[in-house]
Amino acid sequence: MKPVENNCVTVKVPADAEYVDIIRLTLYGIASKWGFSYEEIEDMKVAVAEACNNAVLHAYEGTSKGHIEVKFEMQEDGIRISVKDEGSSFDYEHKEEEATSLHNKDLNEINAGGLGIFMMQALMDDVKVHTEEGTEVILTKFLQRNGELA
Ligand SMILES: Nc1ncnc2c1ncn2[C@@H]1O[C@H](COP(=O)(O)OP(=O)(O)OP(=O)(O)O)[C@@H](O)[C@H]1O
Ligand SMILES: [Mg+2]
């Protein structure tokens, strides 16, 4: 694996469902190069696609379509993926509370929709959302170093 510094790849695509595949393919290429397992990559692909779909569906509603910028960065302990749009944002604290409260609900109480953030939290090791200008979702997956001391 390459050294951690200078290990950053950025892809910027139109905020359109047709381009989410490009992000998924890029993630696959990068995460396998950086040593993640097939299962870890599959989980990351779902989480990143959810973040991209949110940008496609919610960020640019009613306005002319913008872009999604996805930045992949290898850090000492894992991969950090930022999914950023410049559209209208939302109240993340409130949505996060709703997502957390899903844990205590029966399956039939959960409405369709509103599962994207919950899935990202379940599939990644850390999820942060910045909503100052548009939305930036930062997804982190730690790299398991099998056999090495922590
Ligand atoms: N990039 C974004 N820009 C603007 N609003 C967003 C963005 N991402 C999420 N949201 C808001 O947060 C809500 C919750 O997102 P979440 O992905 O959890 O559910 P959903 O997209 O409504 O449904 P699902 O993902 O289950 O199809 C969205 O309905 C939307 O209001
Ligand atoms: Mg969603």
Cross-sheet strand order for the largest sheet: 1-2-3-5-4
The total count of strands amounts to 5
Q: From the 3D coordinates, which CATH architecture would you assign?
A: 2-Layer Sandwich
Question: What gross morphology would you assign?
Answer: globular
Structural class based on helices, strands and sheet pairing = alpha+beta
Mean pLDDT: 87
- Strand portion: 15-25%
Order of helices and strands: EHHEEHHEE
How big is the Rg? 16 Å
User: What characterizes the major β-sheet?
Assistant: 5 strands, antiparallel
CATH superfamily grouping: Histidine kinase-like ATPase, C-terminal domain
- N- to C-terminal separation? 18 Å
User: How many domains make up the 3D coordinates?
Assistant: 1
Give start-end ranges of low-pLDDT stretches.
Answer: none
CATH fold-level name: Heat Shock Protein 90
Number of discrete helical segments: 4
Residues in helix, %? 25-40%
The small molecules bound here are: adenosine-5'-triphosphate, magnesium ion
CATH secondary-structure class:
Alpha Beta
